[in-house]
Amino acid sequence: MNQPSALGLNESRPKTNVRLTISANNLMDLDVFSVSDPICIIYEKTSGRKATTTDPITLPTWRDRQWTERGRTEIVWNDLNPQFKTTFLLPYFFEETQLLRFELYDVDSKIVGTDLTAHDFLGRFECVLAQIVSYSTFRAHLGGQEQIGCQVKPKDKNSKNGTITIRAEEDEKNEKIQFDVCGEGLDRKDFFRKSDPYLNSKRRFDDGSSHIIHQTEVKPKTLNPRWATVQINTQALCGKNPDRPIIIECYDHEKFKKQNDIIGVSQISLGQLLSEAGKTGATLQIPLINEKKKAKKSKYKNAGILKFWNAKIVIEPTFLDFISGGTQLDFAVAVDFTASNGNPAQSSSLHYMASGYPNQYEIALRAVLSICQHYNSSKTFEAYGFGAKLPGQHGVSAVFPLDLRAHNPSVVGINGVMSAYRHALQSVTLYGPTNFSPIIEQVAKKAQRMINSTARYQILLIITDGIISDMYATINTVISASGLPLSIIIVGVGNEDFERMHELDSDDALLQQDSRIAQRDIVQFVTMRDFLNRSTGGYLDTDTVMENLAREVLYEVPAQLTGYMKQRGFGPRSADDPWQRDSPPDDYDPMMDHVHYNTTATAPPLYPQV
């Protein structure tokens, strides 16, 4: 086992910190003259395949180098129902599989080292962090020496090893200062017209330097501007220190000069804003000072006045707030069955089924589904195909259920999606063209039915090998869908030039066509080939490809969901009264979703030469 290390996988990436609180019930009593003295140790799998195992565990976790200890609780003496006071702070990444193990031991001495041979094993539970945060309060049966345990169901009885309860809550909320601000009597900076003022809010650091944190919009041709309501993250603005100075600069925007003209500067603090501009009807007035003018004029007053009012702290709901409140991610997949993929019977085809190796379509499906499944308690997905001729039909089907059942695209579990894909591949005739607008319209109709609450949010994964044939119609469809609870992920497979596909992924500017502009960015596009090759040559193993691909394609989903909810004015439901979570069908077996591919070959046939 790796030695304990700092919690945090990559500090440069945005993350949410989740605090876990742990308790256990009905533990085994392994002491002769008293009851057990439990301790709980948390491990995270930091190397190897990050999926819950279906095989018996033969190597103790503390000896397994694929697992890293993330922390341990205090010892609770003589208690079979411990409530541990020690909590654990873990970084949470929506787009990653973070596999954890919780192991309880009955300790036999006050000193517990990394070697746990002398202590009695009480039970184990293994799951991904996403499962815990999806439920906020998560209860599970503890497994024995070779087992990983399982989630408690409503009618379950007590189990031999007892149960563990894990509560998750976000450690730090997105706190912002919100206020209204206007200027009065600002200096005129132009000879023939009034100024075009805007404000910069800057953080001052301990070394005396400053950094711009926020900028308002420009108000043209006015000396008495009123800017839109301002919201700024308090951590970024002043480190949440109510007394740290905040610099406010007022500039005149110049179109035809290299530099904008300074009108004046003032200084306030977070505490001042809240105390003097936060009361009903109260206004805080601060003069703007232009130091150059002040130095030249003995009777200098100011360069105008800034007025602040309606100041308050607002907590912006996070992705985890919505998930804890029961928001479910509905998931649909659409697979490209156009003829440009090649004959599936030939090894050069992107749909070719090699024994023991997934093709690129299977990699993309499993990579994204393995993450998203934890945010949909029904474990039911919608699976479509497009661009093929169905058995007994002469025309091309623009959209069809992947398992070829009429009018029913729903399948259960990852295994259900993969089985439907293989069934379709053996039954349909690959054809064309590559049209995206029909499938986006189909899924958008479902998303339209979700707009009145925060109960559900739709994700659509499209996997394709070629350029879109109906780009104009697709852009129009995406723009129309941009106001819906919908995110679209597009994965390009094969060696095609996907340059035009990046038009849909409008990270720098909102998607627009003719006179229409999207309400928000809802598309993420990546190419599979960027994840297949090692930088040193050869090919990455399948598990690594899936892990890296999922991290990239799902990275934007949390911000897209919260952005939509904010746009609609929706707040999350309370974690104490969440939306009802649907149960999976009785025949759903989560173990069927864990398939271990052969990852030892250096050049598996599924990878086209790139």
From TrEMBL:
Topological relation to the membrane, as annotated: Peripheral membrane protein
Span of domain VWFA: 330-549
UniProt-annotated stretches for the region Disordered: 566-586
Molecular-function annotations in GO: calcium-dependent phospholipid binding; metal ion binding
Domain C2: 1-142, 160-284
Comp. bias (Basic and acidic residues): 574-584
Pfam family, one: Copine
Keywords: Calcium, Cell membrane, Membrane, Metal-binding, Repeat
Location (main, coarse): membrane
UniProt cross-references to CDD domains, sorted A to Z: C2A_Copine (cd04048), C2B_Copine (cd04047), vWA_copine_like (cd01459)
GO terms under cellular component: plasma membrane
Annotated function: Exhibits calcium-dependent phospholipid binding properties. May function in membrane trafficking. Regulates synaptic levels of nicotinic acetylcholine receptor subunit lev-1 and unc-38 in the nerve cord. Involved in nicotinic acetylcholine receptor (nAChR)-mediated sensitivity to nicotine and levamisole. Affects directional sperm motility.
PANTHER family for the chain: C2 DOMAIN-CONTAINING PROTEIN, COPINE
Record protein name field: Nicotinic receptor-associated protein 1
Organism: Caenorhabditis briggsae
